[in-house]
Please model this.
Amino acid sequence: MSRAAARVAPVDPGIMQRPVAGEAPEVRISRDLLRRGLIVAPLLVGLCWVIWGPHGAASSAYGVALVLVNFALAAGAIALSARISLSMMMAAILGGYLIRLGLIFLAVFAVRHTSWISLPALGATIIVTHLGLLVWEMKYLAITLAHPGLKPARTSPQDSHDAR
Model:
């Protein structure tokens, strides 16, 4: 056995069966996404009204609701499964993604022939809202182990000067 191999700490095989310690940052991120989604919802609905009329506005509102529910379900599944074990959290992330994708498909499939729906407006809203909110949220994420989740709030102008 080499000296380098002797210095490596053994990995605990039971680590995957333990709960994840600490707060769930995905819940705070999801709340922030939902808040931002509610801010942009009137703009999206208004834009779809201008382009596709009242059916476009109704479709856009439905699409925004689907996206916000999707984000909330994702955060909830991760937060709940992390309390059980790391393995459960990984399964919830992958399985939850597939289930939520199926739920969005079913939600669109269920209304595709109704009189109030505009499929182009609905599709555009779902895509733009998902991607737009995720890109917007990236600006506010602290992707570090010291502050997982959202960046800590700055308390004074001096803090923002020190961060540069």
User: Anything to note?
Assistant: Residues 49 and 105 are 23 Å apart (CA to CA). The mean pLDDT is 84.
